[in-house]
Design brief:
- By secondary structure, the protein is an alpha/beta fold.
- The chain has three domains: 1-81, no CATH class; 90-197, no CATH class; 215-352.
- Helices cover 23% and strands 18% of the residues.
- The chain has helices at 157-164, 169-172, 200-208, 246-258, 306-326, 345-376, 390-395, 420-425, 446-450; strands at residues 17-19, 28-30, 43-45, 52-54, 76-78, 122-124, 133-134, 141-144, 146-149, 152-154, 173-174, 178-181, 233-240, 267-279, 283-296, 328-336.
- A four-stranded antiparallel beta sheet has the order 14-15-13-16. A three-stranded parallel beta sheet has the order 3-1-5, with no helix packed on it.
- Helix 4 (246-258) crosses helix 5 (306-326).
- Keywords: Cell membrane, Membrane, Protein transport, Signal, Transmembrane, Transmembrane helix, Transport.
Length: 451
């Protein structure tokens, strides 16, 4: 029997009364106790819509016997309510190796959104066990590569649809979401995003409950993408090229640094995430894939995050030397430690520069908008710019050509000749003070006069 299915968290004794209430609808697995002896109960009440899964060789036997008086008068035990078991509860999942063994806790951990099965993961429900899980989701379909049930692996949409049509699936899965089995692996060597971002709030609610995030010793904790709470340590963000290989780079970091004694206790989470992009820091405009490396350590007080900070500096320095060969085009580092705000100085300076740039652009746009508004209201008018017009100057009667003019008449421009009397009667003050202007005749060829 399993302790987790009982509200009292201990196995029922022989004198206990076991109740299967209809509202729980929890399929149970009955077998011999851990001592190898049959489990004896005084009474059992079964629901009308439940099922019992019996292990090989298990069975029921009804008899009118006595029980050990040392157990007392007995208690009423109930199955724990299985309706609240959510698919997006990280506490219900464990990472296992390809052989099915649980992965030991080591240098690698996962951000919270990736502690729930991702879209290219294989999901295994242990054989000869029973479960019921709530699939409420913000997505229409929860994508998986494959799912194993009752010892059978289902890795195609057809096989999964056939299982859903059977009698067990409605008792095992409920809620507004559905599982979609694709049978495909991640096609990129740089990795694939997990795909649980839309249900990140469900993951954090299941993980944290009403307690919320714990207090941290660092001044300004970092908030990695896909993680529910802040961390003390470092976050390194990589821009990559098509040559980048996520698994090979993870192995490189583990061999080169995490295996060193000075980095004992440092853990790393590395994965592909989608970083939101904005216009002027305000308007969203899509997202771009990046590689996120989260480094944390077990330091306390002022030492919190210092080992992770040093490892991040080593990683960034290695990228500066070998980044092109590794398929990494650029890197950025953010740090939060338990010491005074020195760890955040660089990132805060960058934020101030970015904020100043954004404010400058916004100020310029506001000034331009104000000028345009005043112009449309008629408060501002453009200053007229008058360029000299050759035609106007030639048609000006107050600008007669002097007698010494050596220019030529333009036969293409018809101007009435002025008589001498009109010139003499013109006021003296209207006479031009500037030197006379000469105009070249485009129809005149100087070579003809020379002949």
């Amino acid at each position: 029997m399993t302790l987790g299915i009982w509200q009292a968290l201990y196995l029922p004794m022989e004198s206990a009364l076991r109740l299967f209430f209809f509202y729980s609808r929890f399929p149970s697995r009955c077998s011999r106790s851990s001592s190898g002896l049959p489990t004896q109960l005084t009474d059992m009440f079964l629901p009308l819509n439940g099922e019992l899964l019996l292990a090989p060789g298990a069975g029921f036997a009804a008899f009118d016997g006595s029980w050990d008086a040392g157990c007392g008068s007995g208690t009423v035990l109930r199955f724990a309510d299985a309706e609240q078991r959510s698919w997006f509860d990280p506490a219900l999942w464990q990472d296992v190796s390809p052989a099915g063994d649980q992965e030991p806790a080591g240098h690698i951990f996962s951000v919270d959104e990736e502690r729930v099965p991702c879209q290219y993961d294989d999901v295994i429900f242990q054989p000869e066990t029973s479960f019921r899980v709530n699939l409420d989701s913000s997505r229409q379909a929860i994508r998986l590569r494959s799912i194993s049930l009752m010892g059978q692996e289902l890795s195609s949409a057809e096989a999964w649809a056939e299982y859903l049509g059977g009698p067990s699936a409605p008792r095992q899965f409920h809620g507004n979401g559905t599982l979609q089995v694709t049978g495909t692996r991640c096609p990129h060597s740089s990795g694939c995003a997990c795909g649980n971002t839309q249900d990140g709030h469900r993951i954090c609610a299941s993980l944290l409950g009403a307690a919320g995030c714990p207090a941290l010793p660092c001044q300004s904790p970092l908030r990695p993408l896909g993680h529910c709470c802040g961390v003390c340590g470092a976050v390194v963000t990589l821009d990559f090229t098509p040559d980048f290989d996520l698994q090979k780079y993870q192995d490189r970091v583990v061999r080169a640094w995490l295996s060193l004694p000075k980095y004992e206790g440092v853990q790393m989470a590395i994965s592909k995430v989608h970083r939101a992009q904005t216009f002027l820091g305000l308007l969203p405009r899509g997202s771009t894939p990046v590689i996120q490396i989260v480094l944390v350590d077990g330091g306390a007080g002022e030492q919190a995050g210092t080992a992770a900070q040093q490892l991040a500096a080593d990683v960034v320095g290695d990228i500066a030397q070998h980044g092109e060969a590794l398929g990494i085009s650029s890197s950025r580092m953010e740090v939060a430690t338990g010491s005074t705000l020195s760890g955040q100085a660089g990132s805060r300076a960058a934020r101030r520069i970015a904020a100043g740039t954004v404010l400058g652009l916004l100020s310029g746009l506001l000034v331009l908008g104000g000028v345009l508004f005043l112009f449309r209201k008629g408060k501002l008018r453009p200053c007229p710019l008058r360029l000299p017009c050759l035609r106007d100057q030639e048609e000006d009667p107050a600008s007669p050509e002097p007698a010494s003019d050596k220019g030529f008449d333009n036969p293409m421009f018809d101007v009435e000749p002025l008589d001498a009397g009109s010139v003499e009667e013109a006021p003296q003050e209207l006479a031009p003070k500037a030197p006379p202007m000469f105009y070249l005749n485009p129809l005149y060829d100087p070579s003809e006069t020379e002949t």
